[in-house]
Structures are given as structure tokens and as C-alpha cells.
Amino acid sequence: RSDLGNALVRAGRFDEALTACRMALAAGERAYGPTHPEVGNMHGRMALAWIRKGDYDRAAEDSRRAVEILEAALGPEHPNVYAHLVTLGQAEFRRGRLAEAEAAFERALPGLRGTPNEAILHGAWADTARERGDFESSLEHARRSRELREELFGAEDTMVAVGLLQEGLSLALVGRDEDAFAAFERARGIT
Questions:
Q1: First to last CA, the chain
Q2: Could you tell me which of 114, 124, 126, 38 has the C-alpha nearest to residue 86?
Q3: Which terminus in the chain has less CB density within 10 A, N or C?
Q4: What is this structure's pTM?
Q5: DSSP secondary structure string, the chain?
Q6: In contact, 78 and 70? CB cutoff 8 Å
Q7: pLDDT in tens, 151-178
């Protein structure tokens, strides 16, 4: 059922996804107990569905529970812990809790280096830094996100275009309008 929940989230069918995730979570807790790593991952899937639905308080709650369960069961340096820390940071950002978001990103970064999730993390961190008015830091994270996307997916991948748009916005905010325009133009050429 949790795989069904993931598919429904990707299809934009959030209410159905949450129902499937709740059923999977209840079944997982009955089968494995409330502190099993798979139950932690199920909480993480619920958090993603809550984020997509726009309920960031519940997303943060489920993300935090996922991290707690997985840290206790697998240790604080397990890849799944790092992935759920990114989700927690995204939920906290959307709740306006910028310091908490950045703390989650900072904890996750060492375990995500060189992975697609590192690119996602830097993109989310760029948004958080921009929101708190640190445009130089936002640019640094946006640039790193775009560079990673190029390394991982190739220079013409649509994920690179996403990174270029974010980098262009950050460049504009630090007054580098020509560079921002070039980033926007390059992104437009990819999409």
C-alpha cells in the first residue's frame, strides 16, 4: 500500500495517497511494531504526501517521527535518515521555521554528498537562505544545486533547467542582472 501511496502522490491524487499511506502505516505497525525501520520509512512517505497536500505541520510531524525511528533503529548516519532530514527541512521551510529547516539541511548534507538528494538539498537550502535575506548564501546553494544536476544528469537535462532558474533568481537578487539573464536564457533553451 505504501508503493500505491507513492504512485498516487506522483499522480497528484493526494487524498487517496494519504489514505493508502495511513493503511500501510497501520499494517506496518501491526506487523513490525511502531519502531521498525519500515514504519519509519512509511512516516516519511506520509510526510511527502502531506507536503504535496499543503499540510506542513503534519509533514513536519511525520518527518520528525521518521527520523526518530530510523536513527534509533539504523543509526544517525544511515542514508534513509539523511533523506528524511531533507523532507523535514522542506516542511520546516514551508512552516516559516527557517532556522529549523537549515539545521535539518546541515545535518543531512554529509550523508548526501554526490547524490541526487544533495542537489535537492542545496536547492531547498537556497530557497531558505533567500527567504531569510541571505542572497549570497542563496546563490552559493543554488549554484551548487545546478552544478550537481549537471554532473548527475547532463547539461541538457530538464533538472538542470530547474537549477538554472533558481540560480538566475539568486543572481538577480545580488544585482548580477546580466548573469541572471544568461541563466534564464540557458534554462529556456533546455526546456
A1: 34
A2: 124
A3: C
A4: 0.86
A5: -HHHHHHHHHTT-HHHHHHHHHHHHHHHHHHH-TTSHHHHHHHHHHHHHHHHHT-HHHHHHHHHHHHHHHHHHH-TT-HHHHHHHHHHHHHHHHTT-HHHHHHHHHHHHHHHTTSHHHHHHHHHHHHHHHHTT-HHHHHHHHHHHHHHHHHHH-TTSHHHHHHHHHHHHHHHHTT-HHHHHHHHHHHHHH-
A6: yes
A7: 999 999 999 999 999 999 999 999 999 9
